[in-house]
Write a structure and sequence with these properties.
Length: about 425
C-alpha cells in the first residue's frame, strides 16, 4: 500500500525529508525542518491570497468548483433552496443538523424575539449623512452593537454564544431596514412578530401607512431562497476576515463588522451592485459586443463573472436565473435582463471566457431580482450580508471549538533593506 507521505529532497543540502500527507494536504509547519543549517529559519510556504492554502478544517460547507457543486453540511444547495426555509438553513449551518419541528419552533421564537435594537441605535443611525451608503451604515451599526453587549467580550459559554448568535441573525434585518429608511428620510418601521424572517424584513423596508403590512408571497419566498443561496460559502474573503479577526478573541459584533467590511468590496459582495451598474452602462443588447471587446482588451471587467473556486457554472447562479423568472411574473420584467442574457450568451461562447473558465457567479442575476423588488443598488451588498451572517457565525463557532486554531498570524518574506544606520537630517540626500 502506498504510504501517505511526501518525500522531498533539498538540493541545497542533499538531505531527504518525509512529510506526512493528511486529508490531501501537508502541514506547512513540517516544512520548517527543511533547513540549510542551524542559523536557517526553515522553509516557509509562500501563498499570497491563500490560493492553495487551507487555513482550517471545516465541516460546514463543501464546494467542488470544477463540478459546480455546493453543499451545506452535506445537503445539496438545490434541495435546500427548493425545500427549506432560510431559518432552517441558518440552524443547519450553525448546529450541523436540520432542526426538528420543535427545534425550529424554538429557534424561530428566539430569532423573532431578538429583532429589536436599543433605541439609541436609532440616534446613531440618524447621525449618518442622508446619502450615506447603506452598507457603510450597516457595518458601523453592527460594530456599534458591541457597545450595547459588552458581555459578548468576555463569555464564550455555549448559552452565551447562542445568545449572540440569536441577536446577530435577528437584528441584522432591523438595522439594514433602518439604514434603508434613513436614506429615504422615512420613519423606521419596527419588527412585526407575526411575519416570517423575510416577510418581516420586507415589512420594515416597505411598510407605509397600512396598519398591517402583507408581504407578496412570491417575493417573500424569492428573498428567502436568495438568503439560502448566500448563507455560507466556506473560506471566502469575508469568512476569512471573520475567523481572522475573531481569532484575537474579540466579540462577535466587532468580528462580524470586519467580515462585512470585507464583503463590501466590489470583488466580493459588492459585485452584485457593480453588476447592475455595469448592465446600466451597457444599456442595450446592441452594445454588448463592444463591451465584451473592452473586457477582452483588459479595459473593463465582466462583473458577476469568474470565481476563485468555481471553474464551472456557479450552482447558485443557475437557481437564481430560474428565480428571476418567478419574480418578474409578479413585478415588471427587468429591462436589463435581455442585456444580461446576451452578455452571458456571448461570454459562454467566447474563447477568452471559455479558456479562463469564467462563468456567471451568484451575483450576475441577483441584482436584477433585487431591482425588480424595488431595492436600490446600495442595498445589494446589504442583502448579501444579512444571510451571510449565519455562515459567519457558524464559522466563528466552529473556530471557537477547534483546538488547532490560535490567533491568525501569517508569516511574511522580508524583501526590504538589510540593517543600516540612520543619518542625521542634514546628512541625508
Ligand atoms: N472579467 C474579465 N476577465 C476576468 C474576470 C472577469 N470578471 N474574472 C477573471 N478574469 C480573468 C483575469 O483577468 C485573469 O486573466 P489573465 O489570466 O489573462 O490575467 C483570469 O481571468 C483569472 O482571473 P483572476 O483574477 O486571476 O482570478 P481570481 O481567482 O483571482 O479572481 C474574482 C476571482 C475576483 C472573482 C474575479 O473573477 C473577478 O474579479 N470577477 C468579477 C467580480 C465578481 O463578480 N466578484 C464576485 C465573486 S462571487 C462572490 O464574491 C460572491
Amino acid at each position: 500500500m502506498a504510504s501517505e507521505t511526501l518525500t522531498v529532497t533539498d538540493n541545497r543540502t542533499g538531505k531527504m525529508y518525509e512529510i506526512p500527507i493528511t486529508l490531501g494536504s501537508i502541514g506547512t509547519m513540517d516544512l520548517r525542518k527543511i533547513r540549510t543549517g542551524p542559523e536557517d529559519f526553515g522553509l516557509l510556504g509562500y501563498d499570497p491570497a491563500f490560493v492553495n492554502t487551507a487555513s482550517t478544517r471545516s465541516a460546514i460547507t463543501y464546494i467542488d468548483g470544477d463540478r459546480g457543486i455546493l453543499w451545506y453540511r452535506g445537503y445539496p444547495i438545490e434541495q435546500l433552496a427548493e425545500q427549506a426555509s432560510y431559518l432552517e438553513v441558518a440552524y443547519l449551518l450553525i448546529y450541523g443538523e436540520l432542526p426538528t419541528a420543535k427545534a425550529l419552533e424554538q429557534w424561530t421564537w428566539q430569532i423573532t424575539h431578538h429583532t429589536w435594537v436599543h433605541e439609541n441605535l436609532k440616534k446613531f443611525m440618524d447621525g449618518f449623512h442622508h446619502d450615506a451608503h447603506t452598507m457603510s451604515m450597516l457595518i458601523s451599526s453592527v460594530a456599534a452593537l458591541s457597545t450595547f453587549y459588552p458581555d459578548a467580550k468576555v463569555s464564550r459559554e455555549s448559552g452565551h454564544v447562542d445568545l449572540q448568535t440569536y441577536r446577530l441573525i435577528a437584528k441584522m434585518p432591523t438595522l439594514a431596514a433602518f439604514a434603508y429608511r434613513h436614506r429615504l428620510g422615512q420613519p423606521y418601521v419596527y419588527p412585526d412578530n407575526d411575519l416570517s424572517y423575510t416577510g418581516n424584513f420586507l415589512n420594515m423596508l416597505f411598510r407605509a401607512t397600512e396598519l398591517k403590512y402583507k408581504p407578496e408571497p412570491a417575493l417573500e419566498r424569492a428573498l428567502d431562497v436568495l438568503f439560502i443561496l448566500h448563507a455560507d460559502h466556506e473560506q471566502n474573503c469575508s469568512t476569512n476576515a471573520m475567523r481572522s479577526v475573531a481569532s484575537s478573541g474579540v466579540d462577535p459584533y466587532s468580528a462580524t463588522a470586519a467580515a462585512m467590511a470585507a464583503l463590501y468590496g466590489p470583488l466580493h459582495g459588492g459585485a452584485n451592485e457593480a453588476v447592475l451598474r455595469m448592465l446600466r452602462t451597457v444599456g442595450s443588447t446592441a452594445r454588448v459586443p463592444a463591451f465584451i471587446k473592452q473586457v477582452k482588451a483588459g479595459e473593463a471587467k465582466l462583473m458577476g463573472f469568474g470565481h476563485r473556486v468555481y471553474k464551472n457554472y456557479d450552482p447558485r447562479a443557475r437557481i437564481i436565473k430560474r428565480l428571476a423568472d418567478e419574480v418578474f411574473a409578479v413585478t415588471r420584467p427587468s429591462p436589463l435582463l435581455s442585456v444580461a442574457l446576451e452578455l452571458e450568451r456571448i461570454a459562454l461562447e467566447d474563447e477568452y471566457f471559455v479558456s479562463r473558465k469564467l462563468y456567471p457567479n451568484v451575483d450576475f442575476y441577483s441584482g436584477l431580482i433585487y431591482e425588480a423588488m424595488g431595492l436600490p443598488v446600495e442595498m445589494f451588498p446589504v442583502l448579501f450580508a444579512i444571510p451571510r451572517t449565519a455562515g459567519w457565525l457558524a464559522q466563528w463557532r466552529e473556530m471557537l471549538a477547534d483546538p488547532e486554531q490560535k490567533i491568525a498570524r501569517p508569516r511574511q518574506i522580508y524583501t526590504g533593506p538589510a540593517r543600516r544606520d540612520l543619518l542625521p537630517l542634514g546628512a541625508r540626500v
